[in-house]
Design goal:
174 residues; alpha+beta; Jelly Rolls; 4-stranded antiparallel beta sheet; 17% helix; 35% strand; globular
Length: 174
């Protein structure tokens, strides 16, 4: 009987971020939206009709970055699934959650406004909170856009200012 060799396969989840410009039209539009107070943030997540202006302003800013990542992943196209806004006031936070569990779904956070003291976003290993191996803290910066697998657990820590304003959403690569 021959001896079987051990095969090791290492894998991790990747996330990508890029610092972009925030278009004044997007910032003005998002800053003036009427948001609902839901749990620990103000948001328009539960709005049933897609906000065409929000989609157009956002995609104009982030789509080239998404296409660049899609090329790295050897994907030929993408579809936008949903876009929403979240405004964090002092002490607001968003507990650990995931967006889209589909294997080709990715989520994004685009920091439209923030300060040096705005809450960071913490990403956890898949399986969190049952399996906790690593975390990654992403510091907010105006114009920073992060793209990550939709099933990756993450949270916004308690905010220490009144400026944290993000556009978030889900896309699917194909």
């Amino acid at each position: 009987m021959s001896e079987q060799k051990i095969t090791q396969i290492d894998f991790i989840e990747s996330l990508w971020f890029k610092d972009l410009e925030v278009n004044g039209d997007l910032k003005t539009y998002v800053s003036n939206l009427d948001l609902d107070k839901i749990d620990h943030v103000k948001t328009n997540f539960y709005t049933t009709e897609p906000d065409k202006k929000l989609i157009d302003f956002t995609m104009k800013q982030v789509e080239p970055f998404f296409k660049e990542v899609g090329t790295k992943l050897k994907k030929e196209g993408m579809s936008l699934l949903k876009v929403w806004v979240q405004k964090y006031e002092e002490n607001n936070y968003h507990p650990v959650h995931v967006h889209e569990p589909h294997h080709d779904s990715f989520s994004f956070i685009f920091y439209v406004d923030c300060t040096e003291t705005s809450a960071c976003t913490v990403f956890y290993s898949p399986g969190y909170p049952y399996v906790d191996h690593t975390t990654f803290k992403l510091e907010p910066k105006i114009g920073r856009c992060v793209l990550f697998p939709g099933a990756l657990p993450h949270e916004a820590m308690p905010n220490t200012d009144k400026a944290r304003l993000i556009v978030s959403g889900n896309i699917r690569f194909h």
